[in-house]
């Protein structure tokens, strides 16, 4: 069962003063590269990496990996536009699609595998969203039918809208903070360091 993926790293990072969050480094590795490698190691292939803001700068960190780089020229329209670009770049015939964010600093290979295995246990037909202590997380995994329906909808419609319209979904209740930790501001960097022991640095 081929499970493809879309890794989103196109945002403008306004709360970071325009510095792409995906370029933050953990253990010397940019988050964009770290999460790309985690998805690939978990068996997600083909993998589409969607870039936008400062795309050339980010692209060099994954150019040597077996991923397809897609530049969303309309990234300023919001995350749904980038998601749609990524979905459109995937081939037909996939069993499922993992949609992940590049700014998750604690996401591990095991977290992705756990999500996929749970989805497979359920038969591979329902969308699955991780949830940690009641908090909705990422990445999510969708059946391939979601790709078709999202792309057939108006341009402002994205995966989150698709999920919100489907009562038939499943929650993966887990303890792994990697599903819910992300970084949006400089204050988040300090919180991650003091509360979770995650030291993120700029290049």
Describe the 3D structure:
- This protein has one domain: Spore Coat Polysaccharide Biosynthesis Protein SpsA, Chain A.
- Helices cover 33% and strands 22% of the residues.
- The protein has seven helices and eleven strands.
- The strands form three sheets. The protein has a five-stranded mixed β-sheet with strand order 5-4-1-6-9, with helices on both faces. The protein has a three-stranded antiparallel β-sheet with strand order 3-2-11. The protein has a three-stranded mixed β-sheet with strand order 8-7-10.
- The protein is globular and about 40 Å long.
- The N and C termini lie far apart (38 Å).
Secondary-structure topology with pairs:
Elements: E1 3-9, E2 25-26, E3 29-30, H1 31-41, E4 47-51, H2 55-59, E5 68-71, H3 79-89, E6 96-101, H4 109-121, E7 128-132, E8 135-136, E9 140-143, H5 144-152, H6 159-164, E10 170-174, H7 186-196, E11 200-201
Parallel strand pairs: 1-4, 1-6, 4-5, 7-10
Antiparallel strand pairs: 2-3, 2-11, 6-9, 7-8
Please sum up the structure shown:
The chain is of the alpha/beta class and 203 residues long. The chain has 7 helices and 11 strands.
Q: What is the CATH level 1 assignment?
A: Alpha Beta
* Mean pLDDT metric: 94
> What is the H/E order?
EEEHEHEHEHEEEHHEHE
Please state the structural category.
Answer: alpha/beta
Radius of gyration: 16 Å
Helix content: 25-40%
Tally the beta strands. Answer: 11
- The percent range for strand residues is 15-25%
Contiguous helical run count? 7
In the CATH hierarchy, the architecture is: Alpha-Beta Complex
Taking pLDDT < 50 over at least 5 consecutive residues as the criterion, the unreliable ranges are none
Largest sheet: 5 strands, mixed
Oligomer: single chain
Coarse morphology? globular
The number of domains is 1
CATH homologous superfamily label: Spore Coat Polysaccharide Biosynthesis Protein SpsA, Chain A
Q: What spatial order of strands do you see in the largest sheet?
A: 5-4-1-6-9
How far is the first residue's CA from the last residue's CA? Answer: 38 Å
CATH topology description: Spore Coat Polysaccharide Biosynthesis Protein SpsA, Chain A
């Amino acid at each position: 069962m081929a499970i493809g993926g879309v890794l989103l790293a196109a945002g403008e990072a306004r709360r970071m003063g325009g510095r792409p969050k995906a370029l933050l480094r953990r253990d010397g590795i940019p988050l964009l590269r770290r999460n790309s490698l985690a998805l690939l190691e978990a068996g997600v292939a083909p993998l589409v990496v969607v870039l936008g803001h400062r795309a050339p700068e980010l692209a060099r960190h994954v150019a040597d990996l077996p991923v397809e780089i897609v530049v969303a020229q309309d990234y300023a329209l919001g995350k749904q536009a980038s998601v749609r670009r990524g979905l459109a770049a995937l081939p037909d015939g996939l069993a499922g699609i993992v949609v992940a964010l590049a700014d998750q600093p604690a996401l591990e290979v095991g977290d992705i595998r756990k999500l996929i295995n749970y989805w497979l246990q359920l038969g591979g037909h329902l969308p699955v969203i991780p949830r940690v202590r009641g908090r909705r997380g990422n990445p999510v995994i969708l059946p391939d039918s979601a790709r078709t329906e999202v792309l057939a909808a108006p341009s402002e419609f994205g995966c989150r809208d698709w999920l919100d319209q489907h009562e038939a979904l499943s929650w993966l209740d887990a303890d792994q903070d990697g599903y819910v930790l992300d970084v949006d501001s400089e204050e988040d960097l300090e919180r991650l360091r003091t509360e979770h022991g995650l030291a993120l640095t700029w290049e």
